[in-house]
Design a protein that fits this description.
four-stranded mixed sheet, three-stranded antiparallel sheet, 18 helices, 11 strands, transmembrane, flavonoid 3',5'-hydroxylase activity
């Protein structure tokens, strides 16, 4: 049969038009999911950008942000990672898209240190995480709970001052990090277990401090096995082996704590501590139940983060004040107007000490305890500032870079507490709502200990400054301000200083 050419041509044109129209519509519909990725470095074969991060990833990523922009994308091994380095970009991820980035990616730290993510920090966002968070807030970290254990803070700070007073009479230097670890571990021990963990500063305390620092350091490493899972079994850097050995040490310590706590239950009748409350309320309405592993993992969170992050901020603040004696002098002058020299500083004095509070904020800005927020992961593909963010992309917010952004802060490398006393910065608060200053993160996965951290930093720093004059040892000509990268940003060289009492001797009695 002869082919009807006009009909054939018409059908061909119609079919072609339908095909083109369909193709264009599909391209248009999919266009919002096919936007280009954020800019970033090309990286190396297989390893991607891992070698570009160096030993100080927060610094390397800040330099990349200056070159590529506020949102950068890196291929790290087989994984994608997006980094936000400005207040606006951090807000886009941690507020606007908070729910999509509410989970943690799998990593060796969660597996080997945190009982396979059975803790509060690394737990999947869901009923168990909510139960852990609720119990922690109600009975230890929330405002009412903090008021209830205010006497514990006073007592343990008193023990620390007494030890420092003894050293001052011998003209021996105070190693600040050791003193703070001793005090904070005992504070947390009294709240959680109704007892001091370390009766004296001894080898057990030093080992505990070393364990905490090692945990924070190793958990902050960029472990190749996390980004190239197929070779994780090789443990090329030796990180996972170290984590396993460290976990065994912590597990022995935590198991001992639980056993001793159980054995002493009779003596606490009528006055339950945090662990009693947790064990009595380890169910929720959604059928979630905490087991012994969850409880040990939670204790690990509270003891390590509770002792390390706040102590590092206080140490950095004291170092900056020793480096800038005029700031220390101005702080003493403010305190002289508010706090009598015949007694120790009280927590109720702090609202009347705006310069002290400004010093704390300035330290949070320049020396955030977590320079890179704990990583999150995209549950679904999304779009940020016109850039396509694929599903399973890991998110890091460079808190350190935000605090040193010259577009946000005038003279950002200068330690200047006055910037928080007047103008727009006077209203900035570090609790996660002002993205110019988010030392504890923001959003639903903000650090659970934010409120406690601020209370401890302001009270302990204020007490140390009010109680003593501070100076460097005679053999120290220049203060080392180098950083040591980890989950918490430590001083590379621990601060050691000579203290001179400013109060009557009875002020240094617990």
């Amino acid at each position: 049969m002869a082919l009807d050419t006009p009909i054939f041509l018409r059908e061909l044109v119609v079919s072609t038009a339908i095909f083109l129209f369909t193709y264009i519509v599909i391209r248009f519909i999919n266009s919002k999911f096919t936007h280009r990725l954020p800019p970033g470095p090309r990286g190396w074969p297989i390893l991607g950008a891992l070698p570009l991060l160096g030993s100080m990833p927060h610094v390397s990523l800040a330099k990349m942000a200056k070159k590529y922009g506020p949102i950068i994308y890196l291929k790290v091994g087989t994984c994608g990672m997006v980094v936000a380095s400005t207040p606006e970009s951090a807000k886009a991820f941690l507020k606007t898209l908070d729910k999509n980035f509410s989970n943690r990616p799998p990593n060796a730290g969660a597996t080997h240190l945190a009982y396979d993510s059975q803790d509060m920090v690394f737990a999947e966002y869901g009923p168990r995480w909510k139960l852990l968070r609720k119990l922690s807030n109600l009975h230890m970290l929330g405002g009412k709970a903090l008021q209830e254990w205010a006497d514990v803070r006073v007592s343990e700070v008193g023990h620390m001052l007494q030890d420092m007073y003894v050293l001052s009479k011998r003209n021996e230097p105070v190693v600040v990090s050791e003193m703070l670890t001793y005090a904070m571990a005992n504070m947390i021990g009294q709240v959680i277990l109704s007892r001091r963990i370390f009766a004296t500063k001894n080898n057990e305390l030093n080992e505990f401090k070393d364990m905490v620092v090692e945990l924070m350091t190793s958990a902050g490493f960029f472990n190749i096995g996390d980004y190239i899972p197929s070779i994780s079994w090789m443990d090329i850097q030796g990180i996972e082996g170290g984590m396993k050995r460290l976990h065994t040490k912590f597990d022995v310590l935590l198991t001992k704590m639980l056993e001793e706590h159980k054995a002493s239950a009779y003596g606490r009748k009528g006055k339950p501590d945090f662990l009693d409350v947790v064990m009595a309320n380890c169910d929720n309405s959604e059928g979630e139940r905490l087991d012994t592993t969850n409880i040990k993992a939670l204790l690990l969170n509270l003891f390590t983060a509770g002792t390390d992050t706040s102590s590092s901020i206080i140490e950095w603040a004291l170092a900056e004040m020793l480096k800038n004696p005029s700031i220390l002098k101005k702080t003493h002058e403010e305190m002289a107007r508010v706090v009598p020299k015949n007694r120790r500083l009280l927590e109720s004095d702090i609202p009347k000490l705006p310069y002290l509070q400004a010093i704390c904020k300035e330290t949070f800005r320049m020396h955030p305890s977590t320079p890179l927020n704990l990583p999150r992961v995209a549950s679904e593909a999304c779009e940020v500032n016109g850039y396509y963010i694929p599903k399973d992309t890991r998110l890091s917010v460079n808190i350190w870079a935000i605090g040193r952004d010259p577009q946000v802060w005038e003279n950002p490398l200068e330690f200047n507490p006055d910037r928080f006393l007047t103008g727009k910065n006077a209203k900035i608060d570090p609790r996660g709502n002002d993205f110019e200053l988010i030392p504890f993160g923001a959003g639903r996965r903000i650090c659970a200990g934010t409120r406690m951290g601020i209370v401890l930093v302001e009270y302990i720093l204020g007490t140390l400054v009010h109680s003593f004059d501070w100076k460097l040892p005679d053999n120290v000509r220049e203060l080392n301000m180098d950083e040591a990268f980890g989950l918490a940003l430590q001083k590379a060289v621990p601060l050691s200083a000579i203290v001179v009492p400013r109060l009557p001797p009875n002020s240094y009695v617990p």
